[in-house]
Design a protein that fits this description.
It is a single chain. With 364 residues, the protein is α/β, with parallel strands linked by helices. The protein is 32% helix and 13% strand. The chain has twelve helices and ten strands. Strands 7-6-5-4-3-2-1-8-9-10 form a ten-stranded mixed sheet, with helices on one face.
Length: 364
């Protein structure tokens, strides 16, 4: 695979770039994450969350979050604005259903991200009765690889039980997500067959970025060769059509664009995605560092912040520095995902530069 972009990809990227400019101008909010707790029942090796060991930040009362929902309701189309509970582990809260019912009553679809350990049959039925629309469950390979990553001897059994329950549900949109690392990359083909046999229809793959605990463990980081092989695996699986597989949203991928996920890369953070964090901070993707927070729900009106701030997310000229300074593809990538910048705004790494070329130098 030559690393230089094909003419067809460049034309597509130019058209997509124009669409992004328009979406930035409109900045229509269509996804809101709520970091509803920092408590977690696992201690994953790769956790990039701001969840500190004791999760000393108390859970935000549901009423405080619903005040935000009531502020945004007149300014959005509720049925086109997805609310996602994240954490920590969202299912450690026993009032998720109460909040979900209030969202459902207001017309908002809602979902959650879970490690699956606390998702019993009784809890799933309770969530469905409260209007649960979607759920993502982490399943990171077979038992040894999954339990190694999640650092809990029952984590694989819990996640697999959750996936098997969801496989029998027709009322909900769900997917499994896998963090690929050196421990599980050799099992991807066998794991794909296992997921298909288990009834998984939608599967997402992420590679682990060096933030939080993940920065200290080389076993979590793929070599450039393995990273490229992972993209090749995703592309081949998509062509098979037996399971709907895509690569995670972060990172511009050159000629792999539209071949390992459904659309060209762009970072939606602060453009169509926002978050309310556990301490009330208003941000975009919950993985983005605290110095990019734009306000707090306890001092600011959410829609004022959304409409009047978020400039670092919508105008990315500040990111044209370091390895991005002279890159001819910056016009498409805009400095990669916001969550991949450190406290000084420097890019941690570039996905595109990690892709092995076949006889061509990077376009930079």
């Amino acid at each position: 695979m030559n690393k230089s972009l094909s003419l067809r990809k460049r034309i597509g990227l130019e058209l997509f770039r124009r669409m992004r400019k328009n979406s930035v101008r409109l900045h229509e909010l269509n996804m809101l994450f709520w970091e509803c707790t920092l408590r977690c029942n696992l201690s994953c090796r790769h956790c990039g969350s701001d969840c500190r060991a004791s999760a000393g930040q108390p859970d935000m009362p549901v009423g405080d979050f619903m005040n935000v929902i009531d502020q945004i309701t007149p300014h959005v189309q509720p049925n086109r604005t997805m609310i996602v509970f994240t954490g920590g582990e969202a299912l450690l809260r026993n009032d998720i259903e109460a909040c979900g019912r209030e969202l459902y009553r207001r017309g908002f679809p809602w979902g959650l991200v879970s490690n699956g350990l606390a998702l019993t049959r009784r809890r799933l039925d309770s969530l469905l009765a409260a209007g649960l629309h979607s759920i993502t469950v982490s399943l990171d390979g077979f038992e040894d690889a999954h339990n190694w990553l999640r650092r809990h001897p029952q984590s694989y059994a819990g996640a697999l039980n959750a996936v098997r329950m969801l496989a029998g549900e027709k009322r909900i949109v769900w997917d499994a997500v896998t963090c690929v690392n050196r421990k599980n990359i050799g099992e991807l083909s066998a794991f794909k067959e296992f997921l298909i046999d288990t009834g998984v229809k939608r599967w997402r793959i992420f590679t682990i970025f060096p933030v939080g605990r993940a920065a200290e463990l080389p076993e979590l980081q793929l070599s450039d060769k393995d990273f490229t092989a992972t993209l090749d695996f995703i592309r081949a699986t998509r062509r098979e059509g037996r399971i709907r597989l895509s690569y995670g949203c972060e990172g511009f991928l050159g000629n792999y664009e539209t071949e390992v996920r459904d659309a060209f890369y762009r970072c939606h953070a602060g453009v169509s995605i926002a978050s309310v964090l556990a301490d009330g901070a208003i941000s975009a993707c919950p993985s983005i560092r605290a110095n990019f927070h734009q306000g707090t729900i306890y001092q600011d009106r959410f829609m004022d912040v959304w409409n009047e701030r978020f400039q670092p997310f919508r105008n990315r000229d500040w990111a044209r520095k370091g390895i991005c300074a002279d890159c001819r593809l910056f016009r498409y990538c805009e400095g990669n995902g916001m969550h991949l910048h450190d406290d000084q705004g420097n890019l941690l790494f570039c996905h595109y530069r990690r892709i092995l070329p076949t006889g061509a130098a990077p376009d930079a």
